[in-house]
Amino acid sequence: MKNFQINLSNVTLSSYLNNKNKQKMKNLRMVLGILLLFGALLMSGCIGPGCTDECTESKCEGSVYYECVNHADGCNDLVNRGEVEGECDYALPVCNEYDTKCIGTTYFECSKNQWQNMGKVEGECDYSKCKKPYINVGDDCCLDENDNGRCDKDEVKCGDGRCDSGETQDTCCKDCGCPSDYYCKDDKCEKIEPKITLELKGRTASGKVSGMDPSEYDNYWVVVYVETDILYVQPVIKPSSARYIEIKSNGYWSVSGLHIGYGGKVRAFLIGRGFTAPGTLPIGKKPSGVVAETMKSTR
């Protein structure tokens, strides 16, 4: 803008002086003062140049939406809002009914050929509030160690100590037990037929008990006799309780310190703990309470 000056000395006032109207002179001076003030304000920049991007309505450029926004300075300017669903013919991709998809852990379903944001849905898009090995059940979590989608507590599981519906003595004797005179072995009912084996090595005798439930081992013990002219209980040591040989949890037993001559016979008896074994026995006799026996010769 060009600078300008208003020089009062250059203004011709002769016509007004001739008029001798003091009131009109006063009004003229007031107008001139206002003009001088406006010019000073314009030169100092206190009055802005006006709005640079004035708009009256929003518009589209391709699929990009420009919104006409009224700002605090009083100007209406266009603001780039990008691609906005429902504006400028822009929409989420069309889908087929019943289609689903994931964006992160957010689940979408197709309804009326438009994607509907369903948010985070339990079991969809790898989302679950229950972390493995737990799974969601209603508003809670439950343990699912075998990862089959069912709560372990609700499964029929052989060996959990409960004879559940669907389990029988034939299908799960661990939980449902066996008939009398039978015991559970490898989840099958086996007839109780106690057996005992015998091996000799030097002055040591050993063997294994079978044919009964291992939980019954504590109800029995083994006694060993060496047969010559009569049966002598072994080992020949005191106290006499040493003659009663414990059965280990795996069914094995052993005893050392036997006095065995060449050609002698060794007999092992499995007897109930409520019975006693005498120090000697006539040939052909055996202790009371025997449920199994075996013999081996050193010859």
Descriptors:
rod-shaped; 19 strands; 299 residues; five-stranded antiparallel sheet; disordered N terminus; 4 domains; 3 helices; mainly beta
Brief characterization of the structure:
With 299 residues, this protein is mainly beta.
How would you portray this structure in words?
The protein has a five-stranded antiparallel β-sheet, with no helix packed on it. Strands 11, 12, 13 and 16 form a four-stranded antiparallel β-sheet that branches. Helices cover 11% and strands 31% of the residues. With 299 residues, it is mainly β. It has helices at 14-19, 22-44, 173-176, and strands at residues 59-61, 64-70, 76-80, 100-103, 106-111, 114-119, 134-137, 140-143, 182-185, 188-191, 195-196, 199-201, 204-210, 220-227, 231-234, 252-255, 265-272, 280-281, 290-297. A hairpin with a 2-residue loop joins β9 and β10. Residues 1-17 and 44-48 have low confidence and may be disordered. It is rod-shaped. It is built from three helices and 19 strands.
